[in-house]
Amino acid sequence: MAEDDDSNFKLIKAIIGKKCDILWARNGEEMVNLFQTHGENAKAMLMDIKMPLMNGLEATKIIRESNTTIPIIMQTAYAFTADRENAMAAGASEVLVKPITLSALRTCLSRFLPQLQW
Known about the structure:
The protein is mainly alpha-helical. 46% of the residues lie in helices and 11% in strands. The two termini are 19 Å apart.
């Protein structure tokens, strides 16, 4: 999970942490590095769009160069159509608008990881 805000990370961890092992990157650059190190074990990625050093759009484009199939679920505080379109163009599998709800995140993850039983 790439998220620069501690409280947003804690919320996501509370929602899915019992079913999923989560590695935390605080910016897009860290996420790219985590993916290069642990990508073969990753089942999905949660990617904030707006982060320091490297944003989620840039990180997603880099990850998509080596892996076109891993689900990348982008998160944004902006609900504008253009933000969703930019995320999808960068390679996102889905875009969720913050604040992320338990129901929205679990429903989304279940689509990409049907083996998860909530």
